[in-house]
Amino acid sequence: MADSSEQRRKFKAMVPFFADDGSLLTAEREREALRTAVVDLDLDPDEAHGAIRQAARERGIVLESKAVELVQALLNNTPKGKVPRKRFEEAVTTYATLTNRPKDTVRAEKRVKSLMAGLALVPKRSALGSRRWYNRIKVDD
Prior knowledge:
The protein is mainly alpha-helical. It has helices spanning about 5-20, 25-40, 45-60, 65-75, 85-100, 105-120, 130-135; strands at about 25, 60-65, 80-85, 120-125. The strands form 2 sheets. It has a two-stranded parallel sheet with strand order 1-2. The chain has a two-stranded parallel ribbon with strand order 3-4. It starts with a helix and ends in a 6-residue tail after the last helix. The model has no long low-confidence stretch (mean pLDDT about 90).
């Protein structure tokens, strides 16, 4: 059996293959990579997570989990759990920018809406009492 440093080096070399087009490592693909490291390469979970972060830093891969953490903090900072449209748009812009896909606002809107659902946040009604702006965003289940 190879030593831990050799396994870690192999895993770091594998990380770019888990990233979408080599630049974004989604949360789902990050979990797959961690599972591979722990089950197949027999790495410690903390060591595997560190290897992913180090490989991402070295190769310029964006970790979606970092973007999600920041967006969740932005969304959670709303009174009564109601997110105004302006805050939602800030979250979308932040997510799109942090994932290096500033023009892919449709995907960012879907992701932020699903994050809101996971955090049990609701959209704030507009001045006319409508949430139509929010309901127009279709999330793939």
